Input
Amino acid sequence: MRILSIIGVCFICFIYSVTSFSNTPKTTLLLNPQQAIDQHSICWYEDKRYSEGAIILMANVRVICTAKTPSHNNSPLTWLMLNEQNEIIYPNVPKTIRVN
Output
């Protein structure tokens, strides 16, 4: 009888602990599923989304949201610097070494 009462108390404690975990706050989805798919088509700066062609001032440097590699149709967008003539300054591509 004593063992049954100990097992009963343990069971009640277990049930109580399991139900106490269900009081966690409800999670909310802050991102539209379609936006998650199209993440490559926007630029981010200071928690704001910018579309392609947006020009902003970042640390006294003008930058534009544009394709990382313009020769590819679905290239991800990135921030690139602009010079005084409003021309995009593309970064230098590092030379690669191929070993056969």
Summary: DSSP finds two helices and six strands in the chain. Residues 2-20 form the longest helix (19 residues). The beta strands are 43-45, 48-50, 55-58, 61-67, 77-82, 88-89. The CA atoms of residues 25 and 93 lie 48 Å apart.
